[in-house]
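Help! Submission page says 'invalid entity' but I think these are all valid:
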Amino acid sequence: MKLSERKKRILHAVVANHIQTAEPVGSRTVARADGIGLSSATIRNEMADLEEMGYLAQPHTSAGRIPSQKGYRYYVDYLMGDGRLTVEDELSISRFLSDEKMREIEQIIANAVKVLSSVTNQTSLIMGPQFQKSTFQQMRILPLDEKRGLVVLITHSGFIKNKVIELDQNLSPAELHQVVSYLNQKLYGLTIDQVTTSLINELKRDLFRRLEILEQAFVLLEESLREERQARVFLGGTTNILTQPEFRSVKKIHQMLSLFERESLLFEILEQNLTEDDVVVRIGTENEHEDIQECTLITAAYKINRRILGSVGIIGPTRMDYQWIIAVLRRLVEQLNRTLSTD
Amino acid sequence: MKLSERKKRILHAVVANHIQTAEPVGSRTVARADGIGLSSATIRNEMADLEEMGYLAQPHTSAGRIPSQKGYRYYVDYLMGDGRLTVEDELSISRFLSDEKMREIEQIIANAVKVLSSVTNQTSLIMGPQFQKSTFQQMRILPLDEKRGLVVLITHSGFIKNKVIELDQNLSPAELHQVVSYLNQKLYGLTIDQVTTSLINELKRDLFRRLEILEQAFVLLEESLREERQARVFLGGTTNILTQPEFRSVKKIHQMLSLFERESLLFEILEQNLTEDDVVVRIGTENEHEDIQECTLITAAYKINRRILGSVGIIGPTRMDYQWIIAVLRRLVEQLNRTLSTD
DNA sequence: CCTTAGCACTCCTAAGCGCCGAGTGCTAAC
DNA sequence: GTTAGCACTCGGCGCTTAGGAGTGCTAAGG
């Protein structure tokens, strides 16, 4: 069921107009639009067709049309084309990484989410890089005082995790050093995922033969790894949804904001949409999770040295400026990849 | 201008009732309250007096009374007495620190803010411990690879900061070790505040005589200290204000939520209220900052080993259950002090 | 003299009603 | 196939009205 050229033009006009105004679009408005050149009556007939085909919907009998979910989908897939950024947008995005090379990965991520939300005026979210997918580089234990030490764990993609542990008092610095070197040697190059309990147990057994004292350090290593199993999700511009006319009611606002507070859920949502694809657009019920089926989620994966690390996206009402937002997101991811990559 | 016993009882009844219902309180309602035993007509006369004296206000002629800011103040200062916690509240609070001794200070703080907001159903905020007020314990530099190293800075109150720096390639491990030991020796016991640029310059000059290579490391030390000048503010339960009838309008919600996004402002507000006092209650215009003059802010300082580190508080509409919330806050701070203290 | 019952009055709120205008679908003419 | 014309629909807005909660005042009672 292909759409005629004319229907495409009309659908395009309706969607574009509705994105701008957030109001239902009437036949007269479409007739006045550029490149149409038809009377409102003709448009009305075409719009009635488009409604029957499921691309448009009518809030009530005597109102104009708004795009249905299917309408938005068609617009995104076939009609909108590539967006262009303004010079200011370009600037805001490129400025965010000025002098970023020095920074740690989490700061870069946190910064990116801010830029994205302030440029797009939407709520943006980034799944922090997945710690457990990155590879072990080295581990150190710094003695803090007689009883405590600081474990520092560093991965190749730039993660630095630290944790205070209690040290066995019978452990001499030399012995501690020995254990740490042993561990570094054994774990180097493994992804954090691969550092499983069974591997740890094996190492532990191995070491026990020589020194029977590091029990607690191991328990803590294990714990600290488990804790990090789930990546953090960074949010930006959560209050931006308040400016969207779609969220006029306190109830809806509450619903969305509560959603934003559930980090593990956001993580799930982002992870489901993590693919190699350029940019993923999920409109309304295309989203698996119920609570966002009135929203559109646009995501893209970002990479370090061509390995996918996490995804970044924006969430907002199904009525949004897809063309422009996709362009912004694409540009940001490009920049982000370049900033994060070390080679 | 002292209030008669009877007026106090009536004021108490009005405030207590309004806190519960969020509605203006009529004379009949007060007459029915426990321990009053007067007719509504008498109450009406007394309430008219209380209004004239400024303790009560009337939204409009034919409505009941609501407490004015002055009324709340009187209630807090003289009427409410000490609150009691339910067993569940006690449990929630004491559970939050289970097994916390191990954790880093920032995690404990982040946890406390969560508990506070979920127990009180208000928005809670904690000013993270002030890094620059704590004393230098030690600094280490871990080589990461040929070009980069990780600076780890540890303070006595349990802060751990790290930062990746680029290392001068001409620097041998032995030399690096020497520099670090020197710095540790010189800086030990100083508060971070005292590590000023001039001190750093002095040290730098001192070292230059021996090795002229660590320029960049110093720049970075300075930078990383400056960055941390301002403590972080942790927020919890920001969406709780949505459940308050005072924030029915999207406009007000927006106002509050935008406020919550301005971390430096929150910091200022919390810092202004940082005193030795038990608990500080700021009602409405008692707050210096305009944007929260329709709110009440209740704060208390928390300490490590009797030294004030920061403050924790809750913010909400002026109509709130002062008695109970103050009790909860007091209890939480007690717990927090105990968890953080090392002796 | 303080307290209380009674009553007129105020003013907010919600519901009902009619008007207006935007927009539609249909029909008939071009 | 396109378009002008027209009757029709329906939501939104402003107006009016009824109801009710609560007040302040007055006058009677302990």
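Support: the input was valid. A stray whitespace character was the problem, and the output above is from the cleaned input. Residues 24, 26-28, 40-41, 44-45, 47-48, 58, 61-64 of chain B lie near DNA strand D (CB under 10 Å from a C1').
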